[in-house]
Amino acid sequence: MDWTSRPAGPLNGVVRVPGDKSVSHRAMMLGALAEGVSHIHGFLEGEDTRATAAVMQQLGVRIDALANGERVVHGVGLHGLRAAAAALDCGNAGTGMRLLTGLLAGQAFDSTLVGDESLSRRPMRRVTDPLAKMGARIDSQEGLPPLHVHGGQPLRGIRYTLPVASAQVKSALLLAGLYAEGETEVIEPHPTRDYTERMLAAFGWPIEFSPGRAKLSGGHALRATDVRVPADFSSAAFFLVAASIVPGAELRLPAVGLNPRRTGLLQALRLMGADIRVENKGESGGEPVGDLVVRYAPLHGIELPEALVPDMIDEFPALFVAAAVAEGVTVVSGAAELRVKESDRLASMAAGLQALGVRIEERPDGATIHGGPIGGGSIDSHGDHRIAMSFAVAGLVAGGPIRIGDCANVATSFPGFMELANGCGFDLGVVP
Ligand code: S3P
């Protein structure tokens, strides 16, 4: 499915983005392992998180879907899952597969995890190596999915320092740690999102954590609880950039999750001169939330502080569009992880922006983007949801229409993106 994004604007109105993907995956997994019935409010109805729900159902968990985003998870307890009859399909979701690998390593039965073409190219040794140190047995071909996770392996806790900052790897180890004898401790080179830690605590599991460090021991129980999922900052990101670059724009994004480990783009855009205010600050399900109010402001290029990279790891495609429109040069470094996301995001963005006449120099761990006019043209999203949505944003200010190839995967993280975008002033359509 290809899209066309045409120059449009100004953008106005209130944009309610769907629930957080990271929180939705975790709520589904912990609800399934808990004792009792958990309600999830605002569950992301995306393909990634629905795949995780389907996996938990295959493992014997009853999940009722009430209305849009309302799920009732009938937890089976830590040892209540049962073997699935078939392979467990994580679709496009790296988070789903990596967290499930840790969770399944502690079960009494074998499981096989598979994914789509993109997920089948993503590195899994970063989870299988430390899990093997804990005693897990996981087979793969050259560290790529499918993963065959052997059950019945006694796990023991380890102290592990992550070589790369990754919340997925940290979370996989903590989930395996629920089943391990002794303490599991994870130390990060730079703090990453701490949803697993916060949610384990909310489900009553004793855990010690502080930025960059988490420690728990096995042998406790999870107690069912209700989870309120905040709106996904990463989905809000496209509208933050869109309103920042379209003259006359003003958008309000209500009740967006503002966990500091997610909001690096807010800081980056402000350094570039963006006008973004946070209003109605509050808390939802233990997470800071607030309304983001964003107005057009002329942007200028920056040298992005490397310390911000992990806090905006999913927002680089959107940032690159802001940088392409900004006056002057933006330099990104320390971001080699972008090469192992749903696509190689440094390569996908560089190729796409070049096709639109933007000057960009790609480096192994980043890029230098020269701001200036963006032309119309054709680009390939490489089946990557965030690349597709970023070029939809670029189309707003391009010299002509941008045709974006292969947009179906937008539904993995942001169902209804096109309707919301067109509702506030985009001119986005499906190519017949
Ligand atoms: C996620 C962690 C990040 C992020 C992904 C979601 C999570 O991945 O890119 O979209 O929910 O833990 P890494 O752990 O690979 O950095």
TrEMBL record:
User: Where would one find the signal peptide in this protein?
Assistant: none
Q: Which residues bind phosphoenolpyruvate?
A: 21, 94, 122, 168, 345, 386
Q: Which UniProt keywords apply?
A: Amino-acid biosynthesis, Aromatic amino acid biosynthesis, Cytoplasm, Transferase
Which Gene3D superfamilies does the UniProt entry name for this protein?
Enolpyruvate transferase domain
Q: Please provide, alphabetically and separated by semicolons, the GO molecular function terms listed in this UniProt record.
A: 3-phosphoshikimate 1-carboxyvinyltransferase activity
Q: Which domain of life is it from?
A: Bacteria
Residue intervals of the Enolpyruvate transferase domain: 7-419
State the EC number(s): 2.5.1.19
Which pathway or pathways does this protein act in?
Answer: Metabolic intermediate biosynthesis; chorismate biosynthesis; chorismate from D-erythrose 4-phosphate and phosphoenolpyruvate: step 6/7
Q: Which GO terms describe its biological process?
A: amino acid biosynthetic process; aromatic amino acid family biosynthetic process; chorismate biosynthetic process
Q: Which residues bind 3-phosphoshikimate?
A: 21-22, 26, 166, 168, 314, 341
Q: Where is the active site?
A: 314
Q: Which reaction does it catalyse?
A: 3-phosphoshikimate + phosphoenolpyruvate = 5-O-(1-carboxyvinyl)-3-phosphoshikimate + phosphate
* Subcellular location per the Swiss-Prot or TrEMBL entry: Cytoplasm
The record's Gene Ontology cellular component field reads: cytoplasm
Question: Which NCBIfam families did the record assign?
Answer: aroA
Summary of subunit composition and partner proteins: Monomer.
What role does it play? Catalyzes the transfer of the enolpyruvyl moiety of phosphoenolpyruvate (PEP) to the 5-hydroxyl of shikimate-3-phosphate (S3P) to produce enolpyruvyl shikimate-3-phosphate and inorganic phosphate.
Q: Which family does it belong to?
A: Belongs to the EPSP synthase family.
The identity of this protein, by name, is 3-phosphoshikimate 1-carboxyvinyltransferase
Question: What is the protein's species of origin?
Answer: Dyella thiooxydans
Record gene name: aroA
